[in-house]
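Action item from last meeting closed. Structure (133 res):
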C-alpha cells in the first residue's frame, strides 16, 4: 500500500514534516523526480516540465495530471483523437484509451503503463489543456 518511506502512524521524517504523517488517512503533497526523468528520456522536454506528487492511500496505480500550454492550438476532441490513435498504433500496449467511468481500483492489473481518461481532461481554450492518465 505504501512506499518504504511512508509512515503507518504519525512520526518524524528526515525529509519533511508532511512525510512524517500517517499514509493511511492522508493525501500528502510530495516531490517527484518524474518530470526530470522525462527530460532525460525526451531531451526536447528537458527543463520544460515540473511536477509534484500526491501520496494517496490507494492499493496501487497512480495518476498523471498534465497541464500544458500548446504552441499550436488543438481542440480537446483533436487531442483525444490523437491519443486514441497513438494507443491503437505505435503505443499499443503502453498507452490505453478509455471513455469509461473508471476509478483507481478498476485499473489494478491493467497491462498498459498509462490509461488515458478521456472524460477527466479539460480544455480552457485551444492552447491550454489538462489531460489525465
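Sequence:
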Amino acid at each position: 500500500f505504501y512506499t518504504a518511506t511512508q509512515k503507518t502512524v504519525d512520526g518524524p521524517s528526515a525529509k519533511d514534516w508532511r512525510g512524517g504523517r500517517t499514509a493511511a488517512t492522508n493525501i500528502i503533497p510530495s516531490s517527484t523526480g518524474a518530470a526530470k526523468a522525462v527530460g532525460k528520456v525526451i531531451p526536447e522536454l528537458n527543463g520544460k516540465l515540473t511536477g509534484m506528487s500526491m501520496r494517496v492511500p490507494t492499493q496501487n496505480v497512480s495518476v498523471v495530471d498534465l497541464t500544458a500550454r500548446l504552441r499550436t492550438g488543438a481542440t480537446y476532441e483533436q487531442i483525444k483523437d490523437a491519443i486514441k490513435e497513438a494507443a491503437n498504433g505505435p503505443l499499443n500496449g503502453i498507452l490505453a484509451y478509455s471513455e469509461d467511468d473508471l476509478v483507481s481500483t478498476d485499473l489494478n492489473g491493467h497491462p498498459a503503463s498509462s490509461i488515458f481518461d478521456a472524460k477527466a481532461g479539460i480544455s480552457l481554450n485551444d492552447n491550454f489543456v489538462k489531460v489525465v492518465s
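Note appended to the action item: The mean pLDDT is 89.
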